[in-house]
Amino acid sequence: MENTQELKSFLSLPKDIVITTHRNPDGDAIGSSLGLQHYLANQGHSVKIVSPSEYPDFLAWMPAVNDIMVYDIEPEESQKEIEKADAIFCLDFNSLDRIDKVGEIVDKQKSLKVMIDHHLYPENFADHLISDTTASSTCEMVFDFICNMGHKHLMTQTIGDCLFTGILTDTGSFKYSTSAKLFRIVADLLDLGVDDYMLQDLIFNSMKEKQLRLLGHCLYNRMEILPEYGTGIIHLTKDDYSEYDIQRGDTEGIVNYLLKMKGIRMAAFIMEQPTIVKISLRSKGDFSVQEIAKRHFKGGGHKNASGGASFQGLEATLKKFKELLPRYQAHLVKPY
Ligand code: 5GP
Ligand code: MN
């Protein structure tokens, strides 16, 4: 592979490298960035991670997570790091608008750009575009990347802990996007000493009381079921945000509860945030929420997990979403 050879020779001498990932980074964004950082740093490179916004608390245990630079907090320093880098690795996103202002800075750089990502329809902004829409996660792809560099033997438990995290969170604990290949990779990670039980506990059993109460509030007071469209909706208002003191990451996973109901094919979580209304969509089977997110909410993602935003206010967004349903009805109510 020509790409691999070029990258291999580029990385054969120590370089200044920046890794960046998408706004509101999740387990896969942070796991893949840290996994790649540890690998590249072990090769003698100087590596900085720049995230557009802060990472959620449930990832605070991750190795070297405190060294991540957050553009929202340190814009000038972050920009300097990006400007002095010889190479910029873009992980777990495939269009520069996913990283806001960081994207404008990255776009201006002449340095080598490498994208590693598994979302649908990648934009062509990188010199090396490594895209695999069948991959469970960007962490799985970073594992493949290290193997393709001929360095499988240089994988460490620390790298493994990071990669396991993104695989675990993006597959919903091995429920979606799994494959025989993925389970083999996970077996390799366990061989490195990764403690899957401990990591699951760190990642999923670290909720605060207010998060559990928020989940209760969402299911009891904010859930709407539209059986004729096989759809469930949960919304949160600005007042909910202050009443429950909702912070980054606190709403993670709530949308999935809707899919537990028999007959529900699509789940929508609609959040009134300070300047936008954020939308998280999930689906089962062939029904693609990517198409809805892209077409109607300036977003994207995967077939069964996508997101987007609306600038029209909560009420208008809820109305718009419900008005879309009739045109998808035939696909939403059929059994699969
Ligand atoms: P979540 O609903 O968990 O925020 O995101 C689900 C999936 O959709 C993730 O893969 C995420 O990267 C993607 N996604 C979420 N919001 C957006 C968005 O505004 N634009 C695009 N292109 N993708 C999004
Ligand atoms: Mn991902």
Question: Can you lay out the helices and strands and say which pair or pack?
Answer:
Blueprint: H1 2-10, E1 16-21, H2 27-42, E2 46-51, E3 69-70, H3 75-84, E4 87-91, H4 100-108, E5 112-117, E6 128-131, H5 138-148, H6 157-170, H7 180-191, H8 196-204, H9 209-221, E7 223-226, E8 231-236, H10 238-243, E9 266-272, E10 277-283, H11 289-297, E11 300-301, E12 305-310, H12 314-333
Parallel strand pairs: 1-2, 1-4, 2-3, 4-5, 5-6, 8-9
Antiparallel strand pairs: 7-8, 9-10, 10-12, 11-12
Helix pairs in contact: 2-5, 2-6, 5-6, 6-8
Bound molecules: guanosine-5'-monophosphate and manganese (II) ion.
> How many beta-strand elements?
12
Helix content: 40-55%
Spatial strand arrangement across the major sheet:
3-2-1-4-5-6
How many discrete structural domains? 2
- The chain-level mean pLDDT equals 96
CATH fold field value of the largest domain = inorganic pyrophosphatase (n-terminal core)
CATH class of the largest domain: Alpha Beta
| Beta-strand percent range | 15-25%
The CATH architecture of the largest domain would be Alpha-Beta Complex
- Separate helix tally: 12
Any ligands, ions or cofactors bound here, and which?
guanosine-5'-monophosphate, manganese (II) ion
Low-confidence stretches: none
Order of helices and strands: HEHEEHEHEEHHHHHEEHEEHEEH
**For the CA atoms, what is the radius of gyration?**
20 Å
How would you sum up the global shape?
globular
By secondary-structure content and strand pairing, the structural class works out as alpha/beta
Note the gap between the termini.
39 Å
